[in-house]
């Protein structure tokens, strides 16, 4: 039986999913995490996610008590389906169909389907994901309508009552930084700055005020812009 006091967080090790993890830990009695090794160029995020989980447990014993097992699934299928800027060495640019070359078709749909299957097996009611259509890269699988439709499909196909939670859906990136501060104070903001990974290039050598990254890819630019706006409102 799925319980309403449990959640499974789709956790990549990035700013958004780390904030969503804290959001879930502040609300639910039992929280588990799931991540995906899909052949991403910025595979360094998988190393970061393990570190974030460790440091989160150390920094917040109250959250550590709630934080259950982590699952990491290996799935190279997206590399086999075709080239994108997140799975192959190619330029980040807009494509002919109006979507950025970093868009991996079906990625979030597959991730949440697998997360839904895990939730059913683990007796978990809620799926938490960091998708957003306020400050985002134009990915259609991050939209609110997509999440609503997917929730219906998962519940019909699995004969269950899963709820997809999207705490960042209508937040700007600056508001996401604010949420992190509200959830865990400056220590949690510092953890995000130092240990999460966002950069599409997988760059961890350059430390900026907003964290590590190349500073020029769309993910870095969005994170940096949001941090500047967040500081301006402090």
Overview features:
45% helix; globular; five-stranded parallel sheet; alpha/beta; Rossmann fold
How many helix segments? 8
CATH architecture assignment: 3-Layer(aba) Sandwich
User: What's the rounded overall pLDDT mean?
Assistant: 88
- Unreliable runs: none
Order of helices and strands: EHEHHEHHEHEHEEH
Give the total of beta strands.
Answer: 7
- CATH C-level label: Alpha Beta
N-to-C CA distance: 44 Å
- Give the overall shape: globular
CATH fold-level assignment: Rossmann fold
Q: Biggest sheet: strands side by side, in what order? A: 3-2-1-4-5
What share of residues are in beta strands? 15-25%
How would you describe what is shown here?
- The chain has 234 residues and is of the alpha/beta class.
- The protein has a single domain (3-172), classed as HUPs (Rossmann fold, 3-Layer(aba) Sandwich), CATH 3.40.50.620.
- The chain is built from 8 helices and 7 strands, in the order βαβααβααβαβαββα.
- β6 and β7 form a beta hairpin.
- The longest helix is centred in the C-terminal third of the chain and has 23 residues, at 173-195.
- It is globular and about 45 Å long.
- The model has no long low-confidence stretch (mean pLDDT 88).
């Amino acid at each position: 039986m799925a319980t309403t006091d449990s959640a499974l967080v789709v956790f990549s090790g990035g700013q958004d999913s780390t904030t969503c993890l804290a959001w879930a830990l502040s609300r639910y009695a039992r929280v588990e995490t799931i991540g995906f090794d899909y052949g991403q160029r910025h595979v360094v995020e998988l190393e970061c996610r393990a570190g974030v989980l460790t440091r989160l447990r150390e920094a917040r014993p109250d959250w550590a008590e709630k934080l259950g097992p982590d699952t990491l699934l290996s799935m190279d299928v997206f590399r086999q389906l075709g080239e994108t800027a997140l799975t192959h060495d190619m330029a980040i640019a807009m494509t002919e169909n109006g979507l950025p070359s970093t868009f991996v078709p079906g990625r979030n749909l597959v991730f949440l389907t697998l997360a839904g299957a895990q939730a059913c097996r683990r007796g978990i009611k809620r799926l938490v994901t960091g998708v957003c259509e306020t400050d985002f890269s134009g990915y259609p699988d991050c939209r609110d309508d997509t999440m609503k439709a997917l929730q219906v499909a998962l519940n019909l196909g699995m004969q269950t009552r899963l709820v997809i939670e999207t705490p960042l859906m209508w937040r700007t990136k600056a508001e996401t930084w604010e949420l992190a501060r509200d959830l865990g104070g400056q220590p949690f903001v510092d953890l995000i700055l130092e240990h999460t990974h966002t950069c599409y290039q997988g760059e961890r050598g350059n430390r900026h005020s907003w964290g590590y990254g190349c500073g020029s890819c769309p993910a870095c630019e969005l994170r940096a812009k949001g941090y500047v706006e967040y500081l301006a409102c402090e």
